[in-house]
Amino acid sequence: MGIGGGNVMDVAKALSLMFTNEGSSVQYQGLNLIKKPGIYHCGVPTISGTGAEVSMTAVLTGPVKKLGLKCDWTVFDQIVLDPDLIATVPNDQWFYTGMDTYIHSVEAITGTKKNTFAEAYSEKSLELCREVYLKRERSEPKSDELLMVASYMGGLSLTYSEVGVCHALSYGLGKVLEMHHCFANCVAFNQLEDVYGEYVQEFKHMVKERGIHIPANLAKDWDEATLDAMAEVAYNLPHMWDHAFGPDWQKVLDRERIKGWYRRM
Ligand SMILES: [Fe+2]
Q1: How far is the CA of 209 from the centre of ligand 1 (A)?
Q2: Which terminus of the chain faces fewer neighbouring Cβ atoms within 10 Å, N or C?
Q3: 54 lies in which domain range?
Q4: CA of 113 to the centre of ligand 1 (A)
Q5: Ligand 1 center from residue 59 Cα (angstroms)
Q6: How remote is the CA of residue 52 from the centroid of ligand 1, in Å?
Q7: Burial per residue of 26-55, b for 16 or more beta-carbon CB atoms within 10 angstroms, e otherwise
């Protein structure tokens, strides 16, 4: 049983698979590399937004890669969604983590792999995020329930599509600077108006409405080696760039362009 946030649930999913698949989990980082189904596993989120309760990926940070074990058997056999369990999440975490599902939903429908399933789940998730972060108080009845379902729907949108630029950049921040995934997403998304346009404006609106602080000018403390290391992590996520820019993504994207995005943060 994985009771907790995205990391804990992902580790539970990975453990389930590693009970039945031999060797190190490092060798299974990627798509459909797992050979056998895992043991029965159950997820209980205590913070909402990552979609780890429903996704078919168990994100792991290995010695070289930050990449998930992704296959049909990763998915939990059972989940328990109880809004009472997220009632005491601190306000900033509640926002950052909720924005993970907002960003999943945006990325799922703004790339080459989008399809009607992804759009249906994304649009519902975005609608629920707007309800939670723009239209109601957190203390109102059902607010946490709506967020839990938004996280679930945003996670499902990725079952049918893919994440894009923001998550690729976020993985670099996570791997090199050990920045928390959802917080890193917010730092990156805040600077991606050239890619995600009005969605970034809406994100900034939600940040303002909720009085949340998203740091900027972090890049002034990053030396060239740090930028290179983060760009290398991000560049080596071809499935995300393929989704964002199409199969010829290497024609429009190089490490310098990635570093340019990091320098804005
Ligand atoms: Fe995410």
Answers
A1: 22
A2: N
A3: 1-80
A4: 17
A5: 10
A6: 9
A7: eebbeeeebeeebeebbbbbbbbbbbbbbb
Burial of 19 (0-12, 13-18, 19+ CB in 10 A): exposed
Are 55 and 127 in a shared domain?
no
- Whole-number Å distance, alpha carbon 44 to ligand 1 midpoint, is 17
pTM over 0.90: yes
Residues 94, 111: Cα–Cα separation, whole Å: 27
CA dihedral 118, 123, 124, 129 (to 10 degrees): 120
179/200 same-domain check: yes
Q: 48-103: per-residue pLDDT in tens?
A: 999 999 999 999 988 877 788 999 999 999 999 999 999 999 999 999 999 999 99
Does 74 lie in the same domain as 105?
no
Give per-residue pLDDT as tens, 90-149.
Answer: 999 999 999 999 999 999 999 999 999 999 999 999 999 999 999 999 999 999 999 999
CATH number, domain containing residue 206 = 1.20.1090.10
85 located within any domain: no
Is 137 exposed, middle or buried (CB count within 10 Å of its CB: 0-12, 13-18, 19+)?
Answer: exposed
